[in-house]
Amino acid sequence: MRAFVQLAVAAVLLLACLSQGYGAEQSGEAEEILRKTAKVYESLKSYCDETTLVVNVAEGEREQRTESRYSLAVERPDKLALVLESGDNGITLVSDGKKLYTYVPMLKQYTVEKAPGSIDELLKGRTKEPHVVMMAAGTVKILPLFGREGYKTVMSDVEEAEFAGEETFQGTKMRHLILRQKEADIDLWVEAENSLLRKIRIDMARAIAQQRELMPESAPMKFVIEETHRQIRVGNPIPPDTFVFTPPAGAQQTSSLTGRQESPFVGKKAPEFTLEGLEKGTSVRLADYRGKVVMLDFWASWCAPCRLEMPILQRVYDKYKAKGAVLIGVNVGEDRATARAFLEKDNYKFPAGLDPLGEVDKAYGAPGLPHLVIIDRQGVIQADHIGFMRGLEKELERTLDRILAAGSKAAD
Questions:
Q1: Is it the case that residue 410 has pLDDT exceeding 60?
Q2: From residue 146, how far is each of 91, 128, 143, 405 by CA, in Å?
């Protein structure tokens, strides 16, 4: 379940990052409050706070709560430090104005590159690996407010905005706003006195209801994200060492956080597993496919990038199965009815197993979905890719051609 929560969070944040649309022009009290808040953040010379991100997920009788804590510091024009202090989910970003450090704790890897010229450029993902930065900006929802288009970003895909009145939060008078999107309701609590954002609550009930209409047999689910900001300090000088990145013990520098060649699993034996199949009484065992080149795909029905990737994988599998390749799907965190309905709906035809608690997914070290692992005939991992990538079909065919032609690279 823990791995399921992590992957669900990553998928929702990725969708938020990919959403570039802007809803209908809004006017009213709620919109005016948000415009004022956006202008306040855009004008701040410096900002520090302690951020807490809580994710509550319930599926059927299973419930899980995860909490991540960050320290956040911003100093214009080009310094930012978003540091994951505790918790398994998240990304650390540190820019000292000259270099940008991006660290993914789950991978224990970090990259170093030239820093973008401004915080706005950084938040727009003008880096070597933009989707990693954009996911960080999606993780901590307050971050886009420090860019030049804070209001537009917050109002992306908002169909209706409502001022729900004034409330008290932690002893402070707040203005409560509700933003309604097609997939979610977003509640914001903004300080009445200074227009600073103190709390965000995202309820994915709308998206879940839409999924259940398509798959009524799926288990009831709740998915709520809460983000709070405490110890806020604005306008004060920030100590220079705040923007110094010190690699944690065991962390390794890499040239890419998404490149397959950098994965610590490449060249090692693939972890064995046995999973329940989509039909009751059946199972899927990796050992049964020894001697074939295996495309191992971790996916979930709610994962938009997975839906983009899957038809490509099916086409490649159809083309290469006669050559000795097989595609195995591993559904992460969902029940049998949900996984089977999704595959049957689009007529996908490949072996698939169920990983409801994310145990196999965790064994393969996946911090997000989709996750594609290529295993050679001897059971050695030859490629490892996280996330959907453009040009996947041709790249995957080149990888399979290489492995099938050259044979295995034996593990040490």
A1: no
A2: 18, 21, 6, 51
